[in-house]
Design a protein that fits this description.
Number of strands: 2
Order of helices and strands: HHHEEH
Strand order of the largest sheet: 1-2
Structural class: mainly alpha
Largest sheet: 2 strands, antiparallel
Strand content: under 5%
Bound molecules: protoporphyrin IX containing FE
Length: about 190
């Protein structure tokens, strides 16, 4: 499988980072929902740490993704996709990237402001320039939760749109992002 993107499909690196993000998000959400509902215990604190580590990893992965995107072509939408849908897809992808960057930042500021420092993988302390500030911490908590809900809604629409392309429109939009090398239904014409 090609490492780099082509004009028709995503390459191995883009695909790996896309699906890795999904796996990490499932981890971050599962840990978050469990941890906030647990009674106070050492296990709860462990879950908080793991949630933060997964969140910081998502941040690093998205930076890597955007850097890779800058030096690779982004496959064009199939010709059958109308202009307004291309714009909407572009806008929704940009919003997804933005939330993936802002969420970890709000989590980090929240934790540090509530005096629960972030120590990535138990090794690297990530200090916050804002210091301890309960009001800031509580505000970030609300922003973090609101963004989590927005992300869930947007990712659901995103996945449904991909399935609609695949099952109803029967084009290559999902095929070219599948983690395995799926042959395209409409291969590019030979030059
Ligand atoms: C994209 C990455 C992230 C996602 C999707 C995510 C998602 C969530 C969700 C769904 C909650 C539960 C909210 C609630 O029920 O109150 C939560 C809580 C929390 N998150 Fe994240 N999070 C991410 C990154 C981070 C990072 C990087 C940190 C810290 C470094 C962090 C720290 C926290 C903390 C401390 C809470 C608990 C808030 C409370 O006690 O109510 N999160 N997160
Ligand atoms: C079952 C879940 C998912 C499916 C079926 C899916 C499917 C796809 C497909 C088919 C594309 C290519 C779209 C195109 O060519 O224009 C794509 C791109 C994209 N996906 Fe997903 N995706 C899923 C989950 C996620 C998640 C969890 C995120 C992150 C929150 C995400 C973020 C993105 C972004 C940002 C792009 C644009 C890539 C780029 O152009 O740089 N996806 N996805």
């Amino acid at each position: 499988m090609l490492i780099r993107n082509t004009a028709e499909r995503f390459g191995l690196v883009s695909k790996t980072l896309h699906w890795l993000t999904l796996v990490l998000l499932v981890g971050a959400f599962s840990l978050a929902i469990s941890m906030v509902n647990m009674p106070f215990s050492p296990r709860k604190l462990e879950f908080y740490s793991w949630h933060k580590w997964v969140g910081v990893t998502i941040f690093l992965v998205v930076l890597l993704r955007l850097a890779w995107r800058l030096v690779n072509p982004v496959p064009a939408q199939p010709g059958s996709v109308p202009q307004w849908q291309r714009r909407l897809a572009g806008l929704s992808h940009a919003t997804l990237y933005m939330i993936l960057i802002v969420m970890p930042i709000t989590g980090w500021i929240m934790s540090s402001a509530l005096n629960l420092p972030v120590v990535y993988l138990g090794l690297v302390h990530i200090p916050s320039p804002f210091g301890v500030d309960r009001t800031l911490g509580e505000t970030m908590k609300i922003v973090h939760l609101s963004l989590a809900i927005a992300l869930l809604v947007l990712v659901s629409i995103h996945a449904l749109a991909a399935l609609y392309h695949h099952l109803v429109l029967r084009d290559d939009v999902l095929r070219r992002m599948l983690p395995w090398p799926a042959p395209l239904r409409t291969p590019a014409p030979k030059p």
